[in-house]
UniProtKB/TrEMBL annotation:
SUPFAM superfamilies: S-adenosyl-L-methionine-dependent methyltransferases (SSF53335). The gene is Mettl7a. This is MET7A protein. It holds the Pfam family Methyltransf_11. It comes from Daphoenositta chrysoptera. Residues 75-172 form the Methyltransferase type domain. InterPro entries: Methyltransf_11, SAM-dependent_MTases_sf, Thiol_S-MT.
Amino acid sequence: GASVLLLRACLALLASPIYLLSFLGMWEPFCRKVFFPFILDKICVVHDKKSKKHKQELFRNLPDFRGPSGELRLLEIGTGGGSNFQFYPPGCKVTCTDINPNFQESLSRNMKKNQHLHYERFLVAAGEDLGQVPSGSVDAVVCTLVLCSVHSVSSTLREVLRVLRPGGAFYFLEHVAAEHSSWKYFWQQVCYPTWKLVFAGCCLTRELWKNLEEAKFSELKIQHISVALPWMPIEPHIVGYGVK
């Protein structure tokens, strides 16, 4: 405990300009509008390369969840720049949502690259409040690297279950807490406060598999995997899907 606190203090000292900007109320608007869209775009390029095989496997059975009309209506929570579009099947009708509307450049770029999809609308909405989406109106919900930063995981999962039609599926790929006895978890503990501040509320130590197990899915498939990114304490991940 003492070692964690000492190292946290050292890290906070290194990041003191950001803490000062946060104290002055200047960091959050800058982070949302400039820093986070920029840095997330760079991180996603690396993360997509490392996780490509996992995503290809994850989304392979998306067509199985087409609705009675034969169409696949998909809602993505935290779309960001649209790095998942490449994995969706042709003709899929996509509704994009994100609490941060400042990803226009990378989102437009990925839409142009993936014209096999039909983009229906973009909603500025938090995962916990998808009130603009009617209940039971989508066949699949996708959420990748988002549950780490929502204010309430349980509320977000309740919204997921509300908007899904019966028999629809929720797909996820998220970084999670490491084993508590590991060095990885130690460094997650050290980095936690500064990481959360710098990366727009991202929490390093959430045990998201527990939230998913507590949600009311009729079927749930979870796999624990490793996605190693250079110098980042987010190697442990979970990937899978749940059926309503």
